[in-house]
Design brief:
The protein is α/β, with parallel strands linked by helices and about 180 residues long. It has a single domain, classed as Rossmann fold. The chain contains five helices and nine strands, in the order αβαβαβββαββββα. β2, α3 and β3 form a beta-alpha-beta unit. It is globular, with a radius of gyration of 17 Å. Bound molecules: 1-O-pyrophosphono-5-O-phosphono-alpha-D-ribofuranose (PRP). The site of 1-O-pyrophosphono-5-O-phosphono-alpha-D-ribofuranose has 17 residues, from β2, β3, β5 and α4.
Length: about 180
Amino acid sequence: MEDLQSELAQVLVSEQQIRDQVSEIAGQISSDYEGVDNLYIVGILKGAFIFLADLARELRIPHSVDFMAVSSYGKKGATSGEVRLVMDLREPVTDKHVLIVEDIIDTGQTLTYLLKTLKGRRPASLKTCVLVRKDRKSLDVAIDYLGFVIPDVWVVGYGLDYLDRYRTLPFIAELDRRVYDVPA
Ligand code: PRP
């Protein structure tokens, strides 16, 4: 991480922009779920952990936090679309008001899988909250709360990684091509 400047191409979403948007979304969720006795927030690991932590602490409604982890095959080629459940929730979500929190939508495969899986468990309601969506052709998946639309480039920071690095950067940046386009 020493030579971070040369590894990042440009900052796409600044720390301040993220902070403002997280507050905005938290306010919207708090008013939409006003009167609901408990909102069940489902963070998708690993990427969503930072967004979820900031978002949940700004909510003004009663809520619980749980996590799921999934992994996708063929993701880099973005064609095969097989998603696998790696870690499930601690509790059943039947009759609960569930909000899925994701850091990013790329192909849309992960969120499509999650919606199908959780819908099958018959929650009282099911919505989605996503910090960034890539501006590219993706599956038609419903996003109820969206932070930013970003260009279709490799992004890191605020939960997003490259080979598990850069997740704790406070902003979202485009990774320099030279980092991942290593000649064979
Ligand atoms: C990222 C992100 C989403 C998924 C979105 O997870 O957190 O879960 O990709 O991509 P999709 O729209 O093409 O399905 P990743 O597989 O990188 O795992 P991680 O969260 O553990 O980094």
